[in-house]
Write a structure and sequence with these properties.
By secondary structure, the protein is of the alpha+beta class. It has helices spanning 2-20, 110-114, 191-215; strands at residues 25-33, 37-39, 51-59, 69-71, 73-77, 85-90, 98-103, 130-136, 143-144, 159-162, 169-172, 175-183. Strands 2, 4, 6, 7, 8, 9, 10 and 11 form an eight-stranded antiparallel beta sheet that branches. A four-stranded antiparallel beta sheet has the order 5-3-1-12, with no helix packed on it. Strand 8 (130-136) and strand 9 (143-144) form a beta hairpin.
Amino acid sequence: MTKFLASVLLATGTVLSGAASAAVTVYTVEFSATDFFVGNGYAGGVPVDPVSGSFTFTIDPERIVVGEIGDVTVNYLNIPVSFPVGLQFSLYSDDGPVLWIGGSSPADSDDERARGNDPAGMAFVGLFDDFRLGIANPWTSPALHVASDDGGRPDLQGFLYSIVGPFNYFSTRNVELTMTATPLAAAVPEPATWLTMLAGFGLVGAGLRGRRRAAIPA
């Protein structure tokens, strides 16, 4: 009986520990980018320089799904965006995992990803108001992600944006980037977790009552 009670208590404690160890965190990203290169032979000059912005999002970095697009709150951004701003996580990089922030356009589809428009799926669409910011190793040492296959070309840099008009884009590696994390309080256990906990306590109580009855002399 003692071993049984110990196992029940251990299982219940494991559930409680799992409920309390959720790593849900609020992240705030701030950046400022300047010294842009004009891509695709565009002759109109750089419309906005510097570009700066701030974003906030809430995720559990231990449970983030590769390729899934999440929501981002735009605190400020001094360029227009044609689509809702989202985030996406990718593991397909030579310099570690990458968190992408940018416009979540209709081009963010399986078909577009299959055609290789972007390794992370957060497709950059130069025909619209759009941008893309890649943060390498976001949970450990956040830094600007720069494509490893650009061959040194100045038109494929770390941060890109575009303005409505003929296909054009403006890119740079000169980006100041900060990312701060604020852990949230442990989440309240879900109903299924509560049921497991109550069942465990019930078994403990039943076991104690059985031991008490066995100890009463006949």
